[in-house]
User: What shape does this take?
Amino acid sequence: MDSESIYSDILISITEHAITFRRYYYPTRKDKVVRLADIECIVVRALTIWNGKWRLHGTGSIKTWYPEDMNRPQRDRIFFAELKNQWVNIGFTVENADRVKGILRKMNLIKE
Assistant: This one.
């Protein structure tokens, strides 16, 4: 875990000020850092075939980009970050969905 991280796994890192999405860009697999202030809200849903279960990397629709997660089909939940002043949102998965949801709820980012 990074020294200032609140949460970190192989897919994301959360600090007090930003979320880093690992292996975001294709084909370079470089990370993308999004400031928390640039996030309108985050919605959590059950992971299904209709909302990204088999989307391992890239876009499933023109509106949502998915950072690389080769284990996404085995996960049970997906998070959608709706970004301020940006047309494309981020659909992402994590290793510990309960913990991340709790952290994001405390940060008032979760939209129920």
User: Anything to note?
Assistant: The radius of gyration is 13 Å.
